[in-house]
Each structure stands twice: as C-alpha cells, then as structure tokens.
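S1.2 Input.
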Amino acid sequence: MKFYKILSTALLFPALIAISSCEEEVFDYTPAEPATGAQVYFEGAVNTNFVVNAVDSVFTVKLTRVQKDSVATIALKAEADSATLTKFSFPSVATFAAGEATTTISCVAKVDSMEFDTPYTVKLCIANEEDATLYGQSFVNLKVTCPAPWKSLGVGKFSEAFLGAAGEYFDVEIQQNELAPN
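S1.3 Output.
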C-alpha cells in the first residue's frame, strides 16, 4: 500500500505539470520590414589591436556592406577623449565603388605625440544609423600601441637545465631598450 501511494504521487506531479503547462493562446507572427539602405558593418572577427612605430604609422580597418549595387559614401566618426583623438587621424567618410562589398579605411597614428608602451583605445563608428545594418557591428574598438624602441645586442644561449644538468640549449636574441639602456 505504501508503494502504491509513493508511485501514484510520483506520477501525479508530472501529470499536473503537463496539464497546467498547456496553453491555447497563439501569438500572431509579424515579420520585420526588409532592411533598407547600404547596410554597412564592421567585420566581427578582425584584428583590432595595432602596433605602430615611426616607420609604419598607418593601420587599416575593413568596412563591409550588404547592398553593393551602387556607389555609397558612409560617414564615420571616432570617439575617445579629446587628448587621445589628437594622436590619430581618422577619415570622416568611407567610399564604396559600385559592386564593391568591402572597403579599407586607412587610419594614421601621430607617433610623435604618443607615449611609448601606452595603449590608446578609440571607438570607430558608422555615424548614421540608417547606413548601418541591424545584423552587424556598427562600431569597432581599436587599441593602438607604440612600443618603446629596442636594439639587438646579438644572440645568446639559453638552457632550462638546473645546476649543470644536461639540457637542451636554445638561441635567444638579446635586446636592449634604447630609452633606458641600463
């Protein structure tokens, strides 16, 4: 008898849950309007960390669009604090040729005004929401660093051996920081 009560209780709870979860209400599905405009976006899996120096101060970002049937000019804006923005030159527009799905935006770092080994973060955005697609990124966070200059002093041997134990030796380049050589 005790077994019967336990079994009936164990079966009663799932039955009550199944009965109470059924609902007759049906929602009407209304599809969204088709997207219009250029539908521009920044690609999600792109490199956003850049290293610049006095020789190579230009870095590029790709901008992609869905509607590629005509020429398009897309307004861009860079967002950061005013001190950071003075260290860079960003274009105010990106231009797509007819039939072109991707364009490259060239950005310039003013290396003379940057501090060494300090990362600067700038948010590059599509200025007009009408130009951006709902299904992609309308901005990209760029992290730009100018490393301190180093010079090579030659190659040395390195071993992970402990206290004279036989170990494998590796060639290692020895470098010296030119700003703080000691």
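S1.4 Remarks. The longest helix spans residues 2-21.
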